[in-house]
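Hey,
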Amino acid sequence: MKVKLLSVLLLSALLSACGGGGNGSAASTLGGGGSTPGTGSSAPTSGTSTAGSDSGECFTNVALYTTGNTYQIDLQGLDSSGAVVLTTSNRYTVNGSTTFKGNPATELQVDTTVSSGIGAGSSTQVKNYTRLDSSEAVTFGQVSVVGAMGAAVSTTTSFEPALRKPYTLPLDTPRSYTYTITFEGLVATPPSKAQTLKETFLGTETISVPAGSFKACKMSSETTMDGTTTKTIQWTVAEGPYRGLFLQSADGNGTVTARAVRLRFNGA
């Protein structure tokens, strides 16, 4: 279901944006001069990438995992021609400290509703379990509940070993992670799968999406499973109150697949 894929995409974008680095306090990362939401053009555009030495200025927002904080990312999903095929509202709540399979972690809940288009009216809730260490975010797994036509299906996904993503990546230097994904649920689930994720920080650039114009961090991700590699590119906000929030994604050919139409942090 596409709504579930969008939820996972959004969580993935946040995992490297939650803390650490030289600007590790919530106060410092929520400051800055980000663009004002709502001032961008309706079509996504991008400028020339700026080479920074690393991704440290981009992915350092502990506020995204501070208990009690809430934020929202509303999205458009696009087909290969650029037409909007669905819109979703994605609301995040930081529920606080808990454990996942015996591992201390922070629970981040995202509730996604398809507002229009494919799957309109369906919903997904994903609870992600991540621990913030001094130099990396450690993700143990997540629990997803997909609801449609009055039914709900729950699936628990575990990463072994835990997915460790550093807050700072050097420019144009790939970082690879290999782990096994295990699924558990009341209905038939896929067998455990080995997966390799390779991420590369490509620099920063200014892009415009319906949510506004922002300085953005550009990251390439290549996921390999069963001999098949899927490449995506993601842009996340690089400064200001929305630092670390998802802006746009594209496939391996550079075709935009999703873009933000609204960003909110603690209601603003």
